[in-house]
Specification:
Shape: elongated
Distance between the termini: 41 Å
Structural class: alpha+beta
Radius of gyration: 25 Å
Number of domains: 2
């Protein structure tokens, strides 16, 4: 479904505010605040190796960490009957005990058994040398493994001005298209690749790095509109504003209206690449209202195949919340398409209701 010229143009402004093009533009922000943290957490790889650990043996890596340092450890395992291996993260004294075959201590949550793949975060309790042990001594067959450990480092946020311009521009375009109470946008390190809304939106700098590294940079734009969907539906007092699938459908609908189906495809590609088997296991233990990643990708592809239906449904929701200028442009349009003609009438009715004098 193609949109009336003005609405299409305003939504087109939203897609202009990308990392690549933002420096070409400068607009005032409405009454919201874009807050960019002065520092960000960046990751540097301290281990990135493939290796084989033979049966009845172990291998290990050393990590020199300062007190409070955070390390994210990711391990993939293949081989044997079940592709599992026991890991231990220990300090120097306990490593000596482990080598001697004696009882040793480790930290809770930092020594899981990994099946196929897994990850965890370790916060160093003291400045010391630590040992990541890959223990295959209880198995007869070898294990082929990929081990990556990333240390988080706090650094000045050199991208602060760029982030601020990106989100100020996007926000201003939203205010020209929609009527809603102002909300703030925060850009900061979160320790994970994610985004949140309450209705203020938090975009994690780790998300930008993640989508860039995986070759799907436009997925960030989809995630932003996903959070915008949560925020606007909340501020408009719609039920289901906190439903994750509803926010995904909102983002898909808006991006389709902007002729940005490629953005939706990149987001679907990003989620499809995640390990849904591991996610399913986590959902048994953690309260998470998101569908598993592969289902989110399937939903997006399904909505892309029903473009007119999805766009029409969301336009019915959006019309009462559009600015007068956008409604005027829609109401003066003409179309032989019955559904578009219905939207033209709805926009006109909304305008007339707003302009009727209130009864005394």
């Amino acid at each position: 479904m193609k949109l009336p010229i003005r609405f299409g143009r305003l939504l087109g402004m939203l897609r202009l505010w990308t990392i690549a093009s933002v420096l070409l533009f400068s607009v005032p922000l409405a009454n919201a605040v874009v807050i960019v943290a002065p520092t960000e957490t960046v990751s540097e790889a301290v281990i990135d190796q493939r290796l084989r650990v033979e049966g009845s043996s172990y291998s290990y890596f050393t990590l020199a960490l300062k007190a409070g340092a955070q390390v994210r450890i990711q391990i993939q395992v293949a081989g044997g009957l079940d592709s599992t291996i026991q890991t231990w993260l220990v300090d120097l004294n306990n490593f000596q005990l482990l080598k001697a075959g004696q009882e040793f201590n480790t930290w809770e949550g930092a020594s899981p058994q990994i099946r196929q793949q897994g990850s965890y975060i370790f916060n160093a309790p003291a400045t010391s040398i630590y040992y990541l042990v890959l223990d295959n001594r209880s198995n007869l067959f070898g294990r082929d493994m990929t081990v990556r450990a990333e240390r988080s480092v706090t650094a000045p946020n050199s991208r602060g001005a760029l982030f601020r311009s990106v989100y100020e521009g996007r926000y201003e375009a939203l205010k020209q298209a929609f009527i809603f109470p102002d909300f703030d946008i925060h850009v900061q390190s979160c320790g994970q690749s994610n985004a949140f809304s309450n209705p203020n939106i938090t975009m994690c700098t780790e998300l930008f790095d993640d989508v860039q590294r995986k070759g799907v940079p436009a997925a960030e734009l989809f995630i932003f509109y996903h959070e915008v969907g949560h925020s606007l539906l909340n501020l408009w007092h719609y039920p289901g504003y906190d439903n994750e699938d509803t926010a995904d459908e909102f983002a898909t609908a808006v991006l389709m209206m902007m002729d940005q189906q490629d953005v939706v495809l990149q987001a679907a590609q990003w989620w499809a690449a995640n390990d849904s088997h591991a996610e399913s296991g986590v959902k048994l233990l953690v309260d998470d209202r998101h569908s598993i990643s592969i289902q989110r990708a399937r939903n997006m592809l399904n909505w892309l195949g029903r473009e007119d239906e999805i766009a029409s449904r969301w336009m019915s929701i959006l019309i009462p919340n559009l600015t007068d200028a956008v409604l005027e442009d829609i109401a003066t349009g003409e179309s032989e398409n019955p559904e578009q003609a219905r939207l033209v009438r709805s926009a006109g009715n909304e305008l007339r209701q707003r302009r009727q004098p209130h009864a005394q």
